[in-house]
C-alpha cells in the first residue's frame, strides 16, 4: 500500500495493576508515528491497525480473515451477484452517542470517492456502480451505487461480481463516518484523537497529532462491549529494537519484535514466533526523470541486487527473497491451487547477475547521454530500514559510475514525499488490503495515486481493467489477466521488487487472542487479554 511504511512493529507490554487484579492493559510499541485517523485519507499500515480497533464496518475480520458480524446483522445477495442488501443493528452507536445508521456508510463512501478529498484509496471502490466514473469526474458523487433504505438497511449495487467484496467490507476505508463530526472539525478532522468519534471496540485517546504516545480505551458505547476484555491498549513509538529487547528481558514487555541480528541470535528460544506478512518491499525510481525512463538502467539496478542475501542476512526477521510484486501465500489459482507467484514468469532482470548488470548500466548511460549517475535514495528512519538502505547503497554502487546518497526520514514525512513524487528513488512497500492479487496489481495502473514511480503501460491498464470488469465473473480468465499483468510489469521493470517481509517476535505465554492477519489491517484487539 503505498500504503507504505515498513510494517507496524508491535510490542505488547503489561501495565502495572493493583495486586490481585487481573491485568487489563496491553502496551504496544510501534516503530512509526501515527499520521491521521481520517479513514478517507490515510495510507499507513499503523493507522489502519488503529482504525480497525476504534472503528467498525459492516463486517469484522477475525482469525485467518474470517468474515464476522460487525454493524451488519445480516446480508443478502442477488442471483447475479451484483446487489447486496445489509440489515444494520439498531444498538450500534458512535462515541458521541449518535446512532450508527445506513446514511453514515453512504456519507463515508461518497466522501472518500469525492475527487476533492484526494483519497489514495478511491480505486478500491472500482466495481461498485459509477465508482470509476466518479473518480474520473464523469459522474456526480451522488450516483455511487450505495443507498440507505431508512436508518437500518443499506443496499450496494455493483457493476460486476467482486469475488472479494465481503473482505473489502472489513477494511477501514469502507467503514462509516459521522458527518456531523467531519463538518464540525473541517480540515482538522482526524488530525488528533479529539477531532474524531468512534464506533468500534475502543476509542482513541491522548493523541495530539504530533506526539509519540496514544491509547486505545475500551469504548463503553460499543454494541458488543461485553466481549471486549481489555481496558486499554497503549502505543508508544520506539525505533530502536534493542530497547524493546532489554525491556522484554526485564519482564517489562509481554511481546517484543526483534531486529534481524536479534532474531538470528535467538532462533532457538522457545518464545520466538514468526509472522509472515502479505507485503512487498521495492525500490520505486521516479520515471519522470530522464535517467530512470531508460529501461536498461532500471534493469541494471534490479540485477545488481542479491535478493537471497538481502532477505536472509540484511533484513532477516522472517523476510522472504522474492522475484514477484504480489506476495507469496496470498492467493492460489482457481484451476489447480498453484500459488500466484509460481504462475508468473520472472524476467532475467529479477536474478542476480552483476556482470550483465554492469553491461546494461553502461549501455543505459550511453543512451541517455550520461557518463555517470548520482541520485538520493529515500527511505524511512527505522533501524531495519537504515540497515537496508546501507546494503542497497553498497550493492548499487557496484555499477560503475553510480553514486547513491542516503536520506532516511520519519514515516509521516516519507509518505508525503512519495505521494507527491518528491524523490529520485525511494524504498517503498505495499501491504495487501485483502487476500487477492489485485490488491497489489491495481496500484501500478497509470492513474492510481499510489503508483509513485509514474510507470505507465497501456496494455497493463487493459489487463487490469479486464480482470476487474469483463473477466470479473470468470475466475480463471480473471486469474490469467492478473498473471499476464504482473509478468508485463516485471519485464518492463515498473518497480524493483526486493523482498516480502516477515516478523520475529518474543511473546510471553500470558498474551492471549491477539488476532493477526497477514492481509488488510493486521491487528484486532477486540478479544485480546492477559491471562
TrEMBL record:
Top-rank lineage group of the source organism: Bacteria
Membrane-traversing stretches: none
Entry keyword annotation includes ATP-binding: no
Primary site of residence: membrane
Entry's localization field: Cell membrane
InterPro entries named among the record's database cross-references: Peptide/Ni-bd, SBP_5, SBP_5_CS, SBP_5_dom
GO biological process: peptide transport
Gene Ontology CC: ATP-binding cassette (ABC) transporter complex; periplasmic space
Molecular function per GO: peptide transmembrane transporter activity
Domain named Solute-binding protein family: residues: 66-449
Topological relation to the membrane, as annotated: Lipid-anchor
Keywords recorded for this protein, A-Z: Peptide transport, Protein transport, Signal, Transport
Entry-linked CDD domains: PBP2_OppA (cd08504)
Protein family membership: Belongs to the bacterial solute-binding protein 5 family.
Protein name: Oligopeptide ABC superfamily ATP binding cassette transporter, binding protein
Lineage, top ranks: Bacteria, Bacillati, Bacillota, Bacilli, Lactobacillales
